[in-house]
Amino acid sequence: MHGVNLKLLQTFVCAADQGSFRRASEILKRSPSAISMQIRDLEAQLGIRLFVRAQKKIALTVEGRMLFKQVQGSMAEIQACLETLTEMSAKRRGTVSVAFAPTLASTRMGGILTTYRRRFPESTVTITEVSTEAALRLLQDQDAEFYIGPELPNLTDFEFEPLVKDRLFALIPRNLDDGAETVSFADLATKPVILLDQASATRKLIDDLLTAEGVDLNVSYEIQTTFTALRLAADGLGIAIVPQIGLDMADTSECRAVAIRGEHAFRYIGILTARGYVRHGYSEQMLKLIRQEFST
């Protein structure tokens, strides 16, 4: 069976089911001679006779009946599977499934969703707020069409479209502020520092930079969310090191945002998708709005 053309098997099933090459030709919209030729091609590939041909009649051989029984069942299963996939595809075309990094979901998503729902009220949007690592599983399982968040290195099964450079900032409360326009990690080594925990992409970036610079920080608090880190800094409990995109949530009346010096003290925020994933019309419209949001 290896290498047998599936169209030939489809023709065989139709002819066997109808008991006639002529009726099979009417159903498949081909000439009777084309049907007969396809059956001969199939018999030649298999090395067996499938039909006994008489004048205006055909009958299955023993081998033909065996093949018909197996292939007919398989074709029915394939058809059922295709119908299920068609239903899934139709449902998917009306739904946009997006995963966002938590900081972005809380600072940028509201405006995007408001515009999208106004323009496309017939479409459904599902939003999942997850870390980058968790987003990879969602993309692989197609539970999310794309992820908006920080870039991760060495992702061969994914494609990343950068949208904006996201520099690291120190949010410095008044009681710890010496007025510097920028700071380095070395400048912060003796100060109490608030960092996101090690499950975050931001923390991975910070740890890599600290290792490269040979600097140890005095970490007073490890926090899961950027908002909490910013709140603790506003309360004067330490200097929060956060990505620039999270500063939209900062209370700048109590703190001052200062850029961290360093050639590599930044990351890119962008669109992450599974390689080869085919987007539909509503997905493209959502991505268009996201690109517009990050270009301003």
Summary of the model, kept short:
By secondary structure, this protein is an alpha/beta fold. It has helices at residues 6-18, 21-28, 32-46, 62-93, 102-107, 109-119, 132-140, 201-213, 226-234, 281-295; strands at residues 51-54, 57-60, 95-100, 124-129, 146-150, 158-173, 182-183, 192-196, 218-223, 239-243, 255-260, 266-274.
Polypeptide structure, described:
This protein has helices spanning 6-18, 21-28, 32-46, 62-93, 102-107, 109-119, 132-140, 201-213, 226-234, 281-295, and strands spanning 51-54, 57-60, 95-100, 124-129, 146-150, 158-173, 182-183, 192-196, 218-223, 239-243, 255-260, 266-274. Strand 8, helix 8 and strand 9 (218-223) form a beta-alpha-beta unit. Helix 1 (6-18) packs across helix 2 (21-28), helix 1 packs across helix 3 (32-46) and helix 1 (6-18) packs across helix 4. The model has no long low-confidence stretch (mean pLDDT 88). It is of the alpha/beta class. Strands 3, 4, 5, 6, 7, 8, 9, 10, 11 and 12 form a 10-stranded mixed sheet that branches. A two-stranded antiparallel ribbon has the order 1-2.
